[in-house]
Amino acid sequence: MRDLIKEPIRTLFLGSSWESVETLRALDEDMRFDIVAIITTVDKPVGRKQVMTPSEVKSYALSNRIRVFHTEKKEKKYQEALAKFNPELIVCKAFGEIVPEFFIEYPRYKAINVHFSILPKYRGAVPIQKAILEREDETGISIMLMSKGLDEGDILKIYKEPILPKDTNLSLRKRLVKKSSEILGNVLEEWVHGEINPTPQDDSEATYCWQKDISKENAEIVWDRMEPEYIERMVRAFIPWPIAWTEWDGKRVKLFDVDLIKLKNDREAGELFIDNDDLLFATKDRDICIKVNKLQIEGKTEMDSDEFINGFRDKL
C-alpha cells in the first residue's frame, strides 16, 4: 500500500471562493497531498473603480507559492493543464466553470468534487439556500466523483449536518466548510487505497437548484402570497446575498434578522408597525407577524430595530 507521507498524491485543485480556500488550505497543509497547481477563474473587475481582482483561491496560491493556471473555459487550456501538471488526482470545490469530460477522466484517481447537499437532492448551484427555504431538517457534504452531468457522479462519502432553527446560509455554510476541511483528507486517502466503493446516485430522486432561484428579483417578499414561515426562512437563506427585501415608504428595505411571533391583528399584509416596542410586519396570517431585529433602509447603513424606530417613528 502506498505510503502517502513518503509519496504524496500529485493533486490539482480547482476553486475560486473563500470556501474553496479553506478546502485548499487543508490539502496544502496535509503532507499526503502535493498541490502541483491550482486552476481558478480569471481576475475580475471589482467595485466602483473596477479594479482587476484575483479570486481568493488565486490570492492564497500566490501567497503560498503554488502555481496558478487559468483555463478561461477553453478545452485547449484544459489539455494544456494536464500536460503541464500531470495530476494523479483533481479536487474541486466551488470552481465556477463547466469542466470537460476528458479532463476529469484523466487522473489515475479521477476528479473529486465537494458538494454541500445530501445528493441526489439539490444538485446545482445553491443547495444550502434551497435546503433552508424548503424547511429541511438537515443538509450535508457529498464527496463525489465528478461527472459530465451536473452533480451526477458516484458518491464516495456523505456527512450529514443538522440545520439549526436560526441558521442562515452563511452560518450553515461556515460549519460545512470547516467540517469538509476536516474530513476530506482521510476520505481521499481511503479512496486512493481502494477502500471505498463509489455508490451511484438514484437519478429518480434528484432535485435541482439554480442561481436564479436566489436572484435579487426572487428575494423580494410578496406579503400577500407568501406564508410567514416561508418569509422567515427566506431571510435566513438569503444571507449574505442577495438579502430578502421589501418596499416601505417608497424605499427598499433589506431584512437581515427576523423572528416569527404570535400576535392577533387586522392589519394589511406587509404593513410595518410598532407593538410594545417591537418592530413588526403584518403577514397574510392574521395571527402571526414578522418581528424585525436587524434591517437596512435604502441609503442608510444596517441598523437594529430600536435605531430604526427612533429614526422613523413618525412614519410608523
Helix-strand string: EHEEEHEHEHEEHEEHEHEEEEEEH
- How is the main sheet built? 7 strands, mixed
Count the domains: 2
Shape: elongated
How are the strands of the biggest sheet laid out side by side? 5-2-1-6-7-9-10
Weakly predicted, low-confidence segments: none
CATH homologous superfamily placement of the largest domain: Formyl transferase, N-terminal domain
Specify the helix fraction band: 25-40%
* Class from secondary-structure proportions: alpha/beta
Number of helices: 8
Estimated radius of gyration: 23 Å
Specify the CATH architecture of the largest domain.
Answer: 3-Layer(aba) Sandwich
Query: How many β-strand stretches?
Result: 17
Mean pLDDT over the full residue set: 96
CATH class of the largest domain: Alpha Beta
Beta-strand residue fraction: 25-35%
CATH topology category name of the largest domain: Rossmann fold
Structure, described:
The protein has 316 residues and is an alpha/beta fold. It folds into 2 domains: 176 residues, Rossmann fold (3-Layer(aba) Sandwich); 101 residues, Methionyl-tRNA Fmet Formyltransferase, Chain A, domain 2 (Roll), CATH 3.10.25. The protein is 27% helix and 28% strand. The protein contains 8 helices and 17 strands. A 7-stranded mixed β-sheet has the order 5-2-1-6-7-9-10. Strands 12, 13, 14, 15, 16 and 17 form a 6-stranded antiparallel β-sheet that branches. Helix 1 packs parallel to helix 6 and helix 5 runs antiparallel to helix 7. The longest helix is centred in the middle third of the chain and has 24 residues. The protein is elongated, with a radius of gyration of 23 Å.
